Amino acid sequence: MKFDKPATRNPIDQLRVVGKPVDRIDGPLKVTGRAIYAYEQNDAAPNAAYGYVLGAAIAKGRIASMALEDARRAPGVLAIVTADNAGKLDRGEFYVARALAGPGVDHYHQAVAVVVAHTFEQARAAAGLVRVEYVREAGAFDLAATRTSAPMAKQGSFGPPPETELGNFIGAHAAAPVRLDADYSTPDQAHAMMEPHATIAAWDGDKLTLWTAIQQINWGVRDIAKTLGIPKANVRIVSPFIGGGFGGKGTILSDAVMAALAARAARRPVKVTLQRALMFNNVTHRPATIQRLRIGASRDGRITALGHESWSGNLAGGRPESATIQTGVLYAGPNRMTRLRLAHLDLPEGGAMRAPGEAPGMMALEIAMDEMAEKLGIDPVEFRILNDTQVDPANPKRPFSRRQLVECLRTGAERFGWSDCPRKPATRREGDWLIGVGVAAAIRGAPIMKCAARVRLNRAGVVTVEMDMTDIGTGSYSIIGQTAAEMMGIGMDKVVVKLGDSRFPESPGSGGQWGAASATAGVYAACVRLREAVAARFGVAAADAQFVDGAVRAGGKTFALGEAAEAGELVAEDSIEYGDLAKRYVQQTFGAHFVEVAVDAVTGEIRLRRMLAVCAAGRILNPKTARSQVIGGMTMGAGAALMEHLVVDKRIGMFVNHDLAGYEVPVHADIPHQDVIFLDEVDETISPVKAKGVGELGISGVAAAIANAVYNATGVRVRDYPITLDKLLDRLPA
Prior knowledge:
The N and C termini lie far apart (66 Å). α8 runs parallel beside α15 and α11 (476-488) runs parallel beside α12 (515-538). The chain is of the alpha+beta class. The mean pLDDT is 97. The protein has 15 helices and 32 strands.
C-alpha cells in the first residue's frame, strides 16, 4: 500500500475499539510471570550452557597478555572466547563500539573474554581466574576540556544538520534590546532498564538463532550478520517480551555477539547476560552535553535571534547528541543558528536514549526561554505563545501538519491554576518549604516508517496478526490488536497478536517514537488486503462490505466472518510505504509540562508536589497505555532533573557509579500525582490510522519545567543538571 495523500475517512474512524482504554494483552502474562523473556527461553534452547563476560579493567590501551590456563582447568568450563580465537569480527551499521576488545581496548569494561561453563556459578568462578595484563594509554575523558577543539559533527542518517544558519544571527543578537547568552550542561545518563542485556544463542549448522532483548529486530539481523560475516538469511532473532529498553537495546550489543561466539565455541546453546555492574560501561548511554543558548528579542517579546550550540563526545565514528534538533522548529524568529560539535572521547559509546536530542536539548532551551521571559517581564506561558509559529521558520511555505502547542499551553495553564501562582521568585512559603511552579513546552518528532504485517483468518472468526514489531513495555500488543479488531469488525477476544520474530513480516521496531504509528499502519494495510479476500470469498465488492460484530454485511446479506475461511485459512500480507508528505509538512508532536515543587529552606531538599502534562499527539489509540507512556516519561524527566548522573572518573575513564545503588533513579516516594491530558487530534498526513507516537513526548521538557519551578521557589538559577542540594545550599534565601 502506498500512502502519498492525506487520509480520508476509513474503517479506523469508526472508533469501536481503537481509541478505547483497552487493558493490555500482555498484562496478565507479566503479572503472573508467564511472559517469557530472552534469558528465560529454556524450552526453546534446552541444555544451554552459561557464558560470563569479563570486562576490561582499563579505558584506553591494549592487552599485553592473557593467562587462561587456570580458567580452562576450572570445574565445568567448556570454552573461553577471546579476540585470539573469535575469528574476524566486523561492526554493525548503527553502533560503532567493538563488542570484543583485543588487542586494543577502546573503553572501560569493553568485553575481553567470555567464559563458558555448565553453570553460571562455574562460569563466574572461572572468569575470576583469567589473568589479563594491560598497557594503559592516555585517553580523553573530559568533555569540557575538548570544548575549544571539538570539530563540527558530520551529517549522519539520524539527527538534524550539524550546522544551520538563517538570516544574520550574530548581527541580530548584538542589536537586540533584550539578550541572553548562557551555558547549560547535562550529564551522562544510563538507560538503567529493569531487564539486563541478555541473549541465548544457538547454532544449527551455519544458521544462528538469538533469543535476545532487542528493540529493532530488522536492525539486529542486519548487524549480527555483518558482525559475524554470515548471510542475513542465516539469522533468526526472537524477542517477544522486553523488560525496558529506552533506546539502549536498539540493535545487537556485546551480549548478543558474545553469546553467538560462545555458542559456536561450545557447540551448544549458551546464555549470556551482562551483569548489572558491567552494563553501565559496557553498552551505550546518553552522552553528556554542554550547550550555549543565545536569544535576542524586541522589547515586546518577539524573538529576533535564536542560537543554539551543543558539544558532546563519543567514540570514533559515533554520533553526536543532537540537542539542537527542536530549536529549528519550536519557536519563530527570523535570524537563527544551530551547531553540533562532536569531541572524540574514550568513554563507552554514546547512543540513543528516550527522546535523543529533544530530551537534553529541551533541558537547556526551556530554561533559556524562562530566563528571557523574566528579562522581558512577560509571563513564561505568554512568552512561548507569543513566539509560536504555524510554519517551518526556515521554510515558510512548509506548514505543520498539526500544531497545537498554544492549545497545550492554554489548557495546561487553566487546569494547573497558573494564573494564581506568583511570578516573583521566593515569595511563596509554607513553613520551612519554599513553593514554586514551572512550565516548559514539549516537542518530539513524529516519524513513521515502512512497515509490513501478516494477518490470518480462521473458521472460528479469529484474526491472528504476525509482525516482527517489538513491545518494550509500551503496549504494542494492545494497540496492534485494537487496529486489527477495528478493521475486521471483531472484538479483542477474537484477535491474537504475535510479535518479535524475524520470521514475521518486517517492521521498524520500537524506537524514535515511530513504533505505534508505523506498526498500526502496517496492520491497517494487511487488514485491507484481508477484507478484500473476505469480500471475494463472499462474492461481494470490498468497498460495499461492512465488517461489524463478527459479520460481513453487503448487498442486503449478512455472513459470519469465519465463514470466509470454511474452505481454508485466509492469509493476507502487505506493507505500507510513504510518499513525500513528510517533506511537504512538518510532522511533530507537541505538549506542555507544568510542575510545582517544594524546596526546604534550610536543607535545600527538593520535593515534587504536582506534575501535569498536556499532549497533542495525533489520534490516541489507547488512552490507558498512552497515559502510562507519558507518566513514565515524566518520571524519567524528574530523574534527569534531580538525580541521574553517570559520574566520570576523569583520571582513568570510567563511570564510577556503575550499578543501581550508585546511579540514582526516581522511586515511588519521589513522584507525586501525575495528571495527563490528551487534546483531540487526528493527523491525516501521517497514515491512514492518523496516529503519532507519544512515548518520548512525555519526557521532553519535563526537566526544564522542574528547573524553572526550583528557580521560582528559591530564586536560585541552576543551569547544570542534575539539580542537587549542594547547588542550592549556599544561595538559598535567608
